[in-house]
């Protein structure tokens, strides 16, 4: 009789262990699921902020989604834009490049003999163009 009881106890212990393992798996799976959902939400929010400026660009700057543009790339973009505006045969020697700070953001102010433009350094977007000559 003792043999039957010990077998029963052993089976009960195995069942308890299996239930513990299953409950641990459920907890691990649910924790991983919550983490994945949070990460997806953060990616969506930061992407919207980077493209639509939903939160003023502050979240995108935290996650560094926006890629800063180099001066060389800004000059190439400016040369292309000046060419579209009718200024042909421009070279880098004809351009003046100044790095400026406005409202907490840095810009490249690039001017040619006839035009000027500003390119935001944080994302490489042309934010201002001026095709009117300004005399001092």
Quaternary: single chain
Determine the fraction of residues in helical runs and give it as a percent range: 40-55%
Supply Rg: 31 Å
Strand order of the largest sheet: 1-2-3-4
Number of DSSP helices? 3
Provide key terms for this protein.
alpha+beta, 4 strands, 3 helices, four-stranded antiparallel sheet, 136 residues, 2 domains
Structure write-up:
The protein is an alpha+beta fold. The chain folds into two domains: 2-63; 71-130, no CATH class. The chain contains three helices and four strands. It has helices spanning 2-52, 58-63, 71-84, and strands spanning 96-102, 105-111, 116-120, 126-130. The protein has a four-stranded antiparallel beta sheet with strand order 1-2-3-4, with helices on one face. The longest helix has 51 residues, at 2-52. The chain is rod-shaped, with a radius of gyration of 31 Å.
Secondary structure layout:
Layout: H1 2-52, H2 58-63, H3 71-84, E1 96-102, E2 105-111, E3 116-120, E4 126-130
Antiparallel strand pairs: 1-2, 2-3, 3-4
Compact summary:
52% of the residues lie in helices and 18% in strands. It is α+β, with helices and mostly antiparallel strands and 136 residues long. It has a four-stranded antiparallel sheet, covered by helices on one side.
